[in-house]
């Protein structure tokens, strides 16, 4: 498909609005009574692995483009986009079915009592800062990645470079903080 002269702004805008809207909706909808045939509690670890792999791929992508290896740069970025798509589908699946996990909820009663809050101390604020910035930037990075990818496929190198300078650090931050948030909350999964 020739996309050199295609204006894909509208489809990218639709996808960029639909994805965060769907994710936000998951937290308000009742959990369905579904049994996927495997223990969904493995999915957060899977998400952390995907985020780790994406971060490594983004570092490789930067290395390849800085060293003039354009084909390797493109390949690595397409794999990173593929892993991000798998992450998104898995993330939506997990949050559609899994109960909410609260950071610091040692007894898994869904309530963070004064003792649990005191045990966390200031770490709680670090966690919530990382989580909040991760969530906000994850929503922002979707259109950035899609427009960066589009400019690359259109061979519009000046515009590709310009947006990639914004996209790369945000995408890398989202991938890294996804792993950190997982590590911080993993003791509280039930």
From TrEMBL:
The chain crosses the membrane at residues 12-30, 42-64, 76-97, 125-150, 170-189. The keyword Transmembrane helix applies. It holds the Pfam family DUF420. The keyword Transmembrane helix applies. It comes from the Bacteria. Keywords: Membrane, Transmembrane, Transmembrane helix. This is Putative membrane protein. It comes from Chitinophaga niastensis.
